[in-house]
Amino acid sequence: MLYDFEYLDDSICQKIAFKQVTENDDELIHKWMNEEHVHPFWNLNITLKAFKSHLKKALADKHQSLYLGFLDGQAVSYWEAYWVKGDVVEKAYTAHPYDQGVHLLLGEKRYLGKGYSLPLLRAMVRFQFQVNDTKKIVAEPDIRNEKMIHVFKKCGFKPIKPIELPDKTGLLMFCERKEFEGRWQV
């Protein structure tokens, strides 16, 4: 399989990879959206037909790229990497043209609680920072999602402030390139 990004993570001794989502990934992502640990935060536990329509629109949105995340070839996660300019979150702070944001979910239950969230997030942030002009990655996890907020902090994201978004109250968090590269010796 051809990936858009591959990284051997020494902390877990596994290859992390990302490939862009296609419409053929709809059933897998729909299954994940209906998992008990996912749907309270994503609110996409809808019919497969409705989800296919949602995914088609998301794939057509040019300000974001959707990815499946893999551990040693096994699809385990879903990612939305987006440009802050043109997104609702840009109203929450003074965004720079190359700021990027990220949404994620770890879909496969058997990978939960095993320490994979941080290496996966770290790999995605590393992938996003391949754009030289990007100096900041933004996240706005649901303010109730303490586990993910903890993972974002461990990765190098700093809490900025709660923000009201159309579908949730999020915690605006920033990961500055300099902080990330210093923390993880990129």
Automatic annotation (TrEMBL):
InterPro entries on file: Acyl_CoA_acyltransferase, Acyltransferase_MbtK/IucB-like, GNAT_dom
One Pfam family linked to the record: Acetyltransf_8
Keywords: Antibiotic resistance, Transferase
Pathway the protein acts in: Siderophore biosynthesis
Coiled-coil blocks: none
One example of a Gene Ontology biological process annotation: response to antibiotic
GO MF term set: N-acyltransferase activity
Ranges where the N-acetyltransferase domain occurs: 16-178
Keyword match Transferase: yes
Function, in words: Acyltransferase required for the direct transfer of medium- to long-chain fatty acyl moieties from a carrier protein (MbtL) on to the epsilon-amino group of lysine residue in the mycobactin core.
Name of the protein in its database record: Lysine N-acyltransferase MbtK
Record organism: Alteribacter keqinensis
Lineage of origin: Bacteria, Bacillati, Bacillota, Bacilli, Bacillales
